[in-house]
């Protein structure tokens, strides 16, 4: 918790817990004992501590809720306003606004409180005339060859964590009986029909999931925009008129629109976390090599990893359980914040992330601490080194195909590959040395029990009609945030609790190697 508000936030959290347990004595103590104290819920206004106490004593317990954002605004050293947003088990939302004052003995109490409740918002959906070919390359309904099902014989199918859920598979994973298109028609034309499915696909099927379809991706996953010139830009049901982000663009669009429950994607430089942020989804990038990459078209093998996106915390936990190996779950007691990372995001995103982080810290009772050992200079050097190695590996993996198919790629994507061809062995070696140092620094920052918190993206999703300059600027700013977990091989989870107005953005949590399940438990533990 930020030091200036520690005592206030302890009082607020005591109030929140007292509400959940219907502790009338604690609630009476936390409301100022004054005839001027006010409590209103939009329908009834109670004036005076006596009226409020009588109301508390006679009403049933409050429905369980989960804090999503907490905003604190100091009026003066002895007065502050807290606006707390929450979600209930039925999906309904609420907001409580409280004026807190500190008395002569230093205790914080509520002088004025207002509560507002709203029903569950309508689920995002696409217009009836939406072009689904920008989301799907092939679906379960139009596949010439049926998609594979659970590897277990029908009578022996166990009750898996994903029973009844559907998966949108990024078009980089092998699916038995299908081709891998990799977001590019020339690649698809030359692709063989796969005899077996990728390891991750098989794991999800073994967990009880069904494939809804193979979803579009940016060309060979070398983009963060999700704007494929061959297949179109997938619509973002969570923020209409904006891009979904890439390169797990199609799967993210499918999940955001309710066309699938889980998106199976990849994350080399943020391609799970960026769509999660733009589409209001949970997005988990797993520890490098924690999930086998067999059957996956690579981009930069030093950084490629498997990831998933979901609309709900429960689906996230189920998908993670199906994919991840056994890991020790360590309670998180410390959340580190690096000011230089927060400064990479737009001011509105910073405030949104801070509000979501404060709610998470209160729920988990973890301490938020500022870490200043990493400054802007180091971050820029790390980003430059990451980009150098990523481009060099991209050319090493796909250079022959790109060179033999001139003009087959979007110019910006083709230029990124060709930039890799210009990197010398000495430059690659020097960049790799910088990354080794960065990796050691970042891993030391997140020992067991500690996570790093930062914005998932530098801004909300750009509009579909944004110009190339704006898209490139946003991509570069966001890459400076997303490359950190990638270069260190760390798990990272984008949580969809921050909002900029009505636009979704993500709070990103980065853990130590092999702490994927810890991140999931931190976010989903006791979830409604």
TrEMBL record:
All residue ranges annotated as the Amidase domain in the record: 158-519
Pfam families, A to Z: Amidase, AtzH-like
Keyword Disulfide bond recorded: no
Source superkingdom: Bacteria
Native source organism of the sequence: Sanguibacter gelidistatuariae
Name of the protein: Asp-tRNAAsn/Glu-tRNAGln amidotransferase A subunit
GO terms for MF: transferase activity
Transmembrane intervals: none
InterPro entries, sorted: Amidase_dom (IPR023631), AS_sf (IPR036928), AtzH-like (IPR024507), NTF2-like_dom_sf (IPR032710)
Keywords: Transferase
């Amino acid at each position: 918790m930020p030091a200036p508000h520690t005592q206030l936030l302890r009082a607020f959290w005591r109030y929140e817990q007292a509400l959940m347990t219907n502790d009338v004595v604690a609630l009476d103590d936390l409301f100022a004992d004054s005839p001027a104290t006010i409590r209103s819920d939009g329908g009834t206004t109670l004036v005076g501590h006596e009226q409020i106490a009588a109301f508390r004593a006679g009403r049933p317990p409050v429905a369980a809720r989960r804090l999503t954002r907490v905003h604190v605004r100091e009026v003066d050293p002895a007065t502050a306003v807290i606006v707390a947003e929450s979600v209930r088990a039925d999906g309904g939302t609420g907001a409580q606004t409280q004026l807190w004052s500190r008395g002569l003995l230093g205790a914080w109490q509520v002088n004025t409180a207002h509560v507002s409740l709203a029903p569950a918002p309508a689920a995002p959906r696409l217009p009836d005339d939406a072009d689904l070919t920008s989301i799907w390359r092939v679906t379960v309904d139009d596949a010439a060859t049926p998609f594979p099902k659970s590897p277990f014989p029908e009578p022996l199918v166990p009750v898996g964590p994903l029973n009844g859920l559907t998966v949108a598979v990024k078009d980089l994973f092998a699916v038995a009986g299908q081709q891998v298109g990799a977001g590019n028609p020339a690649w698809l034309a030359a692709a063989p029909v796969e005899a077996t499915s990728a390891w991750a696909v098989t794991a999800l099927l073994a967990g009880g999931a069904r494939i809804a379809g193979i979803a579009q991706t940016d060309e060979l996953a070398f983009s963060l925009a999700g704007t494929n010139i061959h297949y179109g830009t997938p619509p973002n049901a969570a923020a209409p008129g904006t891009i979904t982000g890439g390169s797990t663009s199609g799967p993210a669009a499918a999940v955001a629109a309710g066309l699938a429950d889980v998106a199976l994607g990849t994350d080399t430089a943020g391609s799970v976390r960026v769509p999660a942020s733009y589409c209001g989804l949970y997005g988990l990038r797993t520890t490098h090599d924690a999930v086998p990459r067999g059957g996956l078209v690579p981009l930069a093998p030093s950084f490629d990893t498997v990831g998933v996106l979901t609309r709900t915390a429960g689906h996230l936990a189920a998908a993670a359980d199906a994919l991840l190996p056994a890991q020790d779950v360590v309670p998180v007691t410390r959340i580190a914040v690096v000011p230089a990372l927060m400064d990479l995001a737009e001011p509105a995103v910073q405030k949104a992330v801070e509000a979501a982080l404060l709610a998470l810290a209160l729920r988990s009772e973890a301490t938020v601490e500022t870490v200043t050992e990493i400054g802007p200079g180091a971050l820029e050097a790390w980003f430059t080194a990451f980009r150098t190695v990523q481009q060099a590996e991209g050319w090493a993996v796909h250079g022959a195909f790109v060179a033999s198919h001139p003009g087959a790629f979007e110019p910006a994507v083709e230029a990124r590959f060709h930039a890799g061809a210009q990197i010398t062995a000495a430059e690659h070696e020097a960049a790799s040395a910088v990354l080794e140092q960065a990796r050691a620094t970042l891993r030391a920052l997140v020992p067991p029990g500690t996570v790093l918190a930062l914005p998932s993206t530098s801004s909300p999703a750009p509009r579909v009609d944004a110009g190339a300059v704006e898209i490139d600027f946003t991509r570069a700013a966001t890459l400076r945030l997303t490359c950190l977990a990638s270069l260190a091989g760390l798990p990272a989870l984008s949580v969809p609790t921050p909002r900029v107005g009505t636009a979704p953005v993500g709070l990103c949590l980065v853990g130590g190697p092999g702490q994927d399940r810890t991140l999931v438990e931190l976010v989903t533990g006791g979830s409604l």
